[in-house]
Design goal:
It is built from 7 helices and 2 strands; from the N terminus they run αααααααββ. It is mainly alpha-helical.
């Protein structure tokens, strides 16, 4: 699931590490929305999670667009790969994974890249789709939590929760 080049070769682990560090040294300082420790603990090469793959490619995309001419060849491919993994999530939407934190961060980074490339219509569509999905996800979450009945006969104590005695 890593970012491969046009000729089919994959980025080396040192390239991945340097691009990831370039992202956290530059864009992340201005736009700190990805937890660095959490992201580094993820393994996009082992995971089958499209959200993680999309987020990884979006991060590498930004790094490729910022650090040097050496990585420009990877930029378009990482962009397509990030969008591809998001589209796979959209088709699997019924399992509730589309709006994972990884997918949401990927959508934001992809749309930020689209704005930087002056693809304004595409960027707004990307953000719009995410907002509709997020609203839908939030509505489902609220519906699920409203089904829980409040527990008025329980109070907190030092040892935990205990029932209150009604007089």
């Amino acid at each position: 699931m890593g970012c491969e080049s046009i000729d089919g070769s994959y980025l080396s682990l040192s390239d991945i590490a340097s691009r990831t560090q370039a992202y956290f040294d530059s864009l992340h300082r201005c736009f700190p929305m990805v937890n660095q420790a959490r992201f580094r603990s993820l393994s996009p090469f082992v995971s089958t999670d499209n959200g993680i793959a999309s987020l990884s490619n979006a991060i590498w995309l930004h790094a490729a667009s910022m650090i040097s001419e050496k990585y420009v060849q990877w930029e378009e491919h990482c962009y397509r790969s990030a969008r591809h993994h998001l589209e796979k999530l959209e088709t699997e939407e019924n399992n509730g994974t589309f709006m994972s934190i990884d997918a949401l961060q990927a959508v934001i980074l992809i749309s930020l890249y689209e704005f930087k490339q002056m693809h304004f219509a595409r960027a707004w569509l990307t953000i719009g789709k995410a907002m509709v999905r997020l609203h839908r996800y939030q509505s489902i979450a609220q519906a699920n939590t409203s089904r829980l009945a409040p527990c008025s006969n329980v109070r907190s104590s030092q040892d935990g929760w205990e029932p209150t005695h009604q007089s």
